[in-house]
Amino acid sequence: MAISRDEILRNAHNVASLPLIYTRINEAVDQRSSSMAAIGAIIQEDTGLSARILRLANSAFYGYPSQIGTIEKALTIIGLKPMRDLALATSMMQIFKDIPEDVINMKSFWEHSIACGVTARILAIRQRQPNAESYFLGGILHDIGQLILLQQIPQQIKYLLQLGERQNSLIVELERKELGFDHAGLGGRLLRMWKLPAFLISMVAAHHNPSSATQFKKAAAVIHFADILAHTLKMGASCEKNIPKLDAQAWDILDLTPATLPIIAEQVQIHYDSAASIILDH
């Protein structure tokens, strides 16, 4: 029996609202009267998040010359919005920690998502995007629709994965054929429910078809290409075992050349290990 995107989201009670720690941080960040100390106090209630933020501030991601030892100092280095994004990224791993391992290797899934996030951030910086740090979160969340499907209809997705392997087909195409929608659109709907920024919604919803984005085409193109490069570099694996098809318009939008790809790939390799160790808590 077919199930719609809306039914799946209604049944996904654990993702119906944003994680509490993210909501509290978000409210504090949006209130101009909130001090750095007050925001730091909220973060310190979550020891895992506090440790990750300190590790991020001291990582190659930011290259600060001396050791950062306090949350307040770390927030001045990282910035409030990237810190908020990190809170959401780490919360996602807790929300989806119970997905059956016989369907997908979750460690490998998150490795791919992190590689996509690192690549997207590098591309956004090269493109001189004003909110480049948020592209890291876009990469982390790009396959969140797959997680919802794995959580809500694991046996159907297991069947699609097996079918894709037999036919050597892209899973996103099988989703459209068998379910009537794909994980990208489902993820976009979830982010819309969460009232996240429109450019993040576009990144997720259109990452397999950036030409279809009605706005923020460059943001969608960045995540699209970052996803493909992460697959090509074999840095983790999502449900998709094959390399997704490149959207020619996305290539033109990003104005990349074959000569720049080894440079970008090298930068990804440099930053990936530190990002993965922070997010996955290696």
Explained architecture:
- This protein has helices spanning 5-11, 20-30, 36-44, 47-57, 71-78, 80-95, 106-126, 134-141, 144-152, 154-167, 171-179, 183-193, 198-205, 217-232, 248-254, 261-279.
- Helix 2 (20-30) runs antiparallel to helix 6 (80-95), helix 6 (80-95) runs parallel beside helix 8 (134-141) and helix 7 crosses helix 14 (217-232).
- The N and C termini lie far apart (41 Å).
- By secondary structure, it is mostly helical.
- It is globular.
- It is 65% helix and 0% strand.
- The longest helix is centred in the middle third of the chain and has 21 residues, at 106-126.
- It has a single domain (5-279), classed as Hypothetical protein af1432 (Orthogonal Bundle).
What's the short version?
With 282 residues, the protein is an all-alpha fold.
Mind sketching the topology for me?
Layout lengths: L4 H7 L8 H11 L5 H9 L2 H11 L13 H8 L1 H16 L10 H21 L7 H8 L2 H9 L1 H14 L3 H9 L3 H11 L4 H8 L11 H16 L15 H7 L6 H19 L3
Helix pairs in contact: 2-3, 2-6, 4-5, 4-16, 6-8, 7-8, 7-14, 7-16, 8-13, 9-10, 9-12, 10-11, 12-13, 13-14, 14-15
Note the beta-strand portion.
under 5%
Radius of gyration: 18 Å
For the biggest sheet, the summary is: none
CATH first level: which class? Mainly Alpha
Task: Provide the low-confidence segments as ranges.
Answer: none
The CATH H-level superfamily is Hypothetical protein af1432
